[in-house]
Amino acid sequence: MNHAFPCGTLALDFLGTLRARRNPLPTEKLGTPALLDDWFVESGMLDAAPHADEADLAAAVELREALYLLVEERLGGRAALAARAERFAVALAAGVDVAASAELADAAAAGASAGATASGGATAPGGATAPADPAAIEAALAVLNRHAAEPPFVVQLEAGGAVSATRRAGSAAQGLAAIAREAVEILGGPDAELLRECGRPECTQVYLDRSRGHRREWCAMRTCGNRVKVSAYRSRHRTPTATSTRP
């Protein structure tokens, strides 16, 4: 497979097609129309590739970046997310078991909650507030709503002897409409309070925290969670190199 789906929510998984957004060179997983086709099929949204073209690819990236800007703003803004990632990175370097740190978990949950209820700017390091660009937010909303207004893909029931099956068919534009509609439901409903960014500093995947007590820290335990635990374990058990001196 060319794509990963750790969130269980396709609209948020779609955001992950640009990985490690804060890295100098993020990893683009939608580099070609064929990779966009793969995403639709591998996600299970469509049964067959919609044969996307360059225009479809440009529309997909436009939607993805508009959606990320809206999600980012909901989480408190770019500065708040960068500051949280820095706190986690420092903790990991110090050998702190991030998964077991109630202080870090509470700070992350409080930051996400503050971002979800904020009506204006983003919290910057040190408590400063950096207001979002209203024009950028309005433009992102227009992109999201425009895609959401398009007709989604078609779902039909096909008879196959004693067993019936569903068939999902549509164009790339219809697939993007489905993503946009799901995003509208998330951002405009109670699930917006559950939006979180993965706690691994290198990862910028966003997910819905439906865990008990809302203490989920990773987009996926088998990938990011395990990497963080291994890194913290190695840091805690790292043996200092002894320096020998000659008499």
| Percent range for β-strand residues | 5-15%
- Total DSSP helices: 8
Q: Strand arrangement, largest sheet?
A: 1-2
Structural classification:
mainly alpha
What string gives the helices and strands in order? HEEHHHHEEHEEHEEH
The outline comes out as globular
* Unreliable spans: 106-129
Q: What's the Cα radius of gyration?
A: 21 Å
Structure summarized in a few sentences:
The protein has eight helices and eight strands. By secondary structure, the chain is mainly α.
Question: What features would you describe in this structure?
Answer:
- It is globular, with a radius of gyration of 21 Å.
- The chain has 247 residues and is mainly alpha-helical.
- The protein has helices at 10-15, 33-42, 54-74, 78-93, 102-117, 134-148, 172-187, 221-236, and strands at 18-19, 27-28, 122-123, 129-130, 154-160, 163-169, 195-197, 206-208.
- The protein starts with 9 loop residues before the first helix and ends in an 11-residue tail after the last helix.
- Mean pLDDT is 78; it is low at 106-129.
- A two-stranded antiparallel sheet has the order 1-2.
- Helix content is 47%, strand content 11%.
- A hairpin with an 8-residue loop joins strand 7 (195-197) and strand 8 (206-208).
- The chain is built from eight helices and eight strands; from the N terminus they run H-E-E-H-H-H-H-E-E-H-E-E-H-E-E-H.
